[in-house]
Amino acid sequence: MATANDRAVLQTIFNPSTPFGDIPGLDQEEEEDAQEEGEAFAPELLEQVRDLELQGVSAAESGDVSMALERFSEAIRLLPERASGYNNRAQALRLRGDVAGALRDLDAAICLSRGCGRAACQSFVQRGLIHQLQARQEDARRDFERAARLGSAFARRQLVLLNPYSALCNQMLCEMLGRLRNPGGTGNE
């Protein structure tokens, strides 16, 4: 029987670029985050805010970024101490092209979450990606390191890509695994 650590290693090897989710133990962490939120906020208000955030996510996924921003802003108005709303609104702001606004919301989410939990993890990843796009590699690396410590396999993959020696080793490992899976092939499948 494989341990949780064994499953995490295999997950990283076979799916190194998986963003959020598919990380062993993350569901347990989400349950702990939800339990802490339930204790920190009035249940009825928290349910209303979560519903607004789900509406915002649905609107963003369907391309209605303005509606998404309205829903996330309303969720923040109702519970300004909750990090998730800022993280979600940052994504919508980034989709709209407001990178400065997205960075402000990501900073707020990280501050409110005290750098812990799922909202912080996602905020560090988002902020790291923005820093990468702005060619601020050291800032990106710091954010990806923090997200990786919080369990993000995607952030770990980004750290490998930022390190040319690690990237070369990872490429050689992938080729070797490819050869093991397909001994008659070239290993690049």
Description:
This protein has 189 residues and is mainly alpha-helical. 77% of the residues lie in helices and 0% in strands. It is built from ten helices and no strands. The two termini are 29 Å apart. Mean pLDDT is 81; it is low at 17-32.
Main features:
mainly alpha
What's the arrangement of secondary structure elements?
Elements: H1 4-14, H2 26-40, H3 43-61, H4 65-78, H5 83-96, H6 99-113, H7 117-133, H8 137-149, H9 153-162, H10 164-181
Describe the structure in brief.
The chain has 189 residues and is mainly alpha-helical.
Global shape: elongated
Report the β-strand fraction as a percent range: under 5%
Low confidence ranges: 17-32
What would the average pLDDT be, to the nearest integer? 81
Please give the share of residues in helix: over 70%
Cα distance spanning the termini: 29 Å
Main sheet record: none
Query: What's the Cα radius of gyration?
Result: 19 Å
Structure annotation, total helices: 10
Q: What is the element string, with H for helices and E for strands?
A: HHHHHHHHHH
Q: Count every beta strand, where a strand is a DSSP E run of 2 or more residues.
A: 0
